[in-house]
Specification:
The chain is of the alpha/beta class. The chain has 13 helices and 19 strands. The longest helix has 25 residues.
């Protein structure tokens, strides 16, 4: 493997995965690897996987087949959640050379040196209980906006979810390290940081430290302390909170964001179902009354705030009555958009024992209904702010000479490309 010096990456799943792929990419570039696009010819292909849905598993296999057709002599490395959960299954896929679990992915350059094409796939993994370290990661696809991982793992055991099995117990960076990373990002020209984690509101749990260096001191830090510390930091103009559980979003946090110049009026709060019966079957830690109260509190302090919602359709036990409850609840509350997920059976989850199972075609029908509701909600939200002047950070150029950016309250703005606007916060009238 000594002569191989180019690497390409593909990421499946969440923003946290994207931040980790970006961190791994920078590490490999420091080791002398030339980064290439995934559709280019490369010596090594790295696929960072997700396991939240069956589609992510299928896509991983499809990508491996694509590499085999295009570059059969190249090395294929699979890491991420799917790799931690089912390493032997992945190792059996023709063309896979290396499978790295959750504790090994940041040592990828060292593992690659041991590879020889044609040998059986190597597996480097460990029991998820043995994972205690934290690795700082952030995405740097451009110099405008970055996703910064500050927390990993989860101590919740929702009945549909494999994340605790794939990423381990909740653990987080220290405030000191997050501030140091934010200063580095500011110096590189980043204007907006999106804070990411598996259970972001759980920040402060587990060992403090970065890059697998564990501090044994007891910390008295929490997410509220973190956002207050970041708000006081010079250099970064905007922050967003990527996703936070409703039971961990305190009224103090809501009031703080409302008074902050740097934290944007935008929350993404997982709901998963508008039926208390289904929430209980999912083993969620709240009822819809609590969720509605959080939305009302946000709108009390920030009527202009965007609120995004995660929701799962077709969970076992979700009959027509429970689905109608969800639709009615989401129609009633003042939210801005939905991220809709179709329930997918995952091995070793409690949800597999729940009946009745919702037929696949009904799951997809319900997904379409909620996606249509999401479109209506977003159009209503935009219309409510029409003719307002709001601050937009223009991030990048898209296809056909179009550039895009988001208002402080997460309304997407697309305009003809203008280099003078790139990485600038501009007052913009919404039309």
């Amino acid at each position: 493997m000594a002569t191989s010096k180019s690497v390409a990456f593909h990421t499946l799943g969440c923003k946290l995965n994207f931040s980790e792929t970006s961190a791994i990419s920078r590490m490999m570039e420091k080791e002398g690897f030339e980064k290439k696009e995934f559709d280019d010819q490369a010596d090594v292909y790295v696929i960072n996987t997700c396991s939240v849905t069956e589609n992510a598993d299928k896509e991983c296999r499809m990508l491996v087949r694509r590499i085999q057709r295009r570059a059969p002599q190249s090395f294929v490395v699979i890491t991420g959640c799917y790799a931690q959960l089912k390493p032997k299954e992945i190792a059996s896929i023709p063309g896979v050379d290396l499978v790295l679990g959750a504790a090994e992915k940041f040592d990828i350059a060292e593992h690659i040196k041991e590879l020889s094409k044609g040998n059986p796939a190597r597996i480097h993994s460990c029991d998820i209980e043995d994972i205690t370290g934290f690795n700082t990661s952030y995405s740097m696809n451009d110099r405008t906006r970055t996703f910064l991982k500050v927390q990993d793992g989860c101590d919740y055991n929702c009945s549909f979810c494999t994340i605790p099995m794939a990423r381990g117990k909740s653990r987080s960076d220290s405030i000191e390290n997050v501030i140091a990373t934010a200063k580095e990002l500011a110096a590189s020209g980043v204007k907006e940081i999106v804070l990411t984690g598996i259970n972001l509101g759980d920040f402060g749990k587990g060992p403090g430290g970065s890059n697998s260096v564990i501090k044994t001191i007891q910390r008295e830090e929490d997410f509220f302390s973190l956002i207050k510390a970041l708000d006081a930091l010079d250099g970064i103009e905007r922050y967003r909170i990527s996703s936070i559980e409703p039971n961990l979003l305190s009224d103090d946090m809501i009031r703080f964001v409302a008074s902050s110049r740097k934290f944007m009026p935008h929350f993404h709060i997982p709901l998963q179902s508008g039926s208390d019966k289904i929430l209980a079957l999912m083993k969620r830690r709240y009822k819809k009354e609590l969720y509605e109260g959080k939305v009302q509190k946000i709108k009390e302090f920030m009527p202009h705030c965007a609120i995004g919602v995660d929701v799962i359709t077709g969970f076992p036990g979700e009959g027509e009555t429970e689905f109608a409850e969800t639709v009615d609840f989401l129609t009633k509350i003042d939210i801005s958009y939905l991220h809709v997920f179709t329930y997918s059976e995952r091995d070793h989850t409690h949800a597999l024992t729940i009946e009745p199972v919702v037929p696949i075609h009904i799951r997809h029908q319900r997904n379409k209904i909620l996606r249509s509701l999401s479109f209506i909600k977003m159009q209503q939200f935009i219309e409510r702010h029409k003719d307002e002047t709001r601050k937009v950070l223009f991030e990048k150029s898209g296809k056909d000479g179009i550039m895009e950016g988001y208002t402080d309250n997460y309304i997407k703005i697309s305009i003809p490309y203008n280099e003078a606007y790139r990485n600038q916060v501009i007052d913009w009238k919404i039309r």
